[in-house]
Amino acid sequence: MGTYSNDAINQLKALIDQVEEPLKRTYQTVHQGYQAETLARFLKAREWNVTKAHKMLVDCLNWRVQNEIDNILTKPIVPTDLYRAVRDSHLIGMSGYSREGLPVFAHGVGLSTYDKASVNYYVQSHIQINEYRDRVVLPTASKKYGRPITTGVKVLDMTGLKLSALNQIKMVTIISTIDDLNYPEKTHTYYIVNAPYVFSACWKVVKPLLQERTRRKIQVLSGNGRDELLKIMDFASLPHFCKREGSGSSRHSEYANDRCFSLDHPFHQQLYNYIKQRSSESETSQPIKQGSFHINMPEPAVEGTEIAKTIESQMHKFEKGNGISGSLDRLKIKDNSDHRTRNCP
Questions:
Q1: What is the average pLDDT score of the chain?
Q2: Is the per-residue pLDDT at 292 higher than 90?
């Protein structure tokens, strides 16, 4: 980091050092010992404006306290069948690590339906994955590689996108807004794979709306991206939908048992068992009851809403003008610098 960056980090640190409990305690949970990297993330999200970054971080800390986020990893979603339904309809998982030690998170953008549980369960589960990543996965990787690892890479599978998926934009927007405001700059690179024909045209509409820094993070790969991704990770770390030769999803391939979205995958087994163990060790432990962990839902940013409407309008043009029935190419991207939630077709 340059002198300008270091000066901004030092200024922000001086301001954050003045916060009192309980904000100070939850701030420790956020930075996990990597203060400079954490402060830099919030500064990047606000174009290195110290005043705006300070407000963003304090707002984040207040959100965490008000919603008891520090305790969310002691709140398992039960019964297990309900959690399995959440996992089967919100397709996200961790498939491995890049050669640089960055965790690889896979997202089944096109096949996620969000129709097996209430909004609160999906939000709870998403935040639990975020917190497990930040408190367990990233610190473990940092120790292993002997350097701070505070970001990961995301591989977004566009297989199966349909026009009906527009109905899920509200759910995706809620999750993305939570990430934008409270987990900024956690993704080093977005890799887009299995993008259908209409993606390129819709991408032309959305791309100019993104910040340049965000555009540089996005790489649209040919087919399932297998060959390109093998340049940065070993075969074992590839998401299952990238392991087939050529293009297309491997949803029904010989790698179906390696689906990192499934509750049976080692990542989700470790995560779920970790939460159940933390719950049993909690001083205030009570018999686990069914019921979601309610989070105050943020208002989506105006910019994100406008982008979502632009995408929807573009897709309807495709449907009417090209006879493409039920086809939608939507890509979820976050630009944390200005609260924007992106759903790029």
A1: 84
A2: no
**How confident is residue 176, by pLDDT bands cut at 50, 70 and 90?**
confident
Report the number of distinct structural domains present in the chain.
2
Mean pLDDT of the region 50-75: 97
DSSP at 193: E
Q: Is 172 exposed, middle or buried (0-12, 13-18, 19+ CB in 10 A)?
A: buried
Burial state string for 248-277 with b = 16 or more CB within 10 A and e = fewer than 16 = ebbbebebeebbbbbbebebbeebbebbee
Q: Are 294 and 171 within 8 A, CB to CB?
A: no
Do 91 and 136 belong to one domain?
yes
Q: Same domain for 24 and 144?
A: no
- Note whether 130 and 184 are same-domain residues: yes
Average pLDDT over residues 206-219: 81
Separation CA 229–CA 104 (nearest Å): 11
DSSP string, 310-327: HHHHHHHHHHHHH--TT-
Q: Cα–Cα distances in Å, from 293 out to 27, 55, 72, 122, 125?
A: 21, 26, 8, 10, 9
50 and 122 co-located in one domain: no
Is the pLDDT reported for residue 125 higher than 80? Answer: yes
Phi/psi at 255 (nearest 5 deg)? -100, 15
Is the same domain home to 150 and 132?
yes
CA distance 92 to 271: 13
Residue 138 has pLDDT above 90, yes or no: yes
Rounded (to 5) percent helix, strand, coil in the chain: 55, 10, 35
CATH code at 176?
3.40.525.10
Other beta carbons within 10 Å of 124: 21
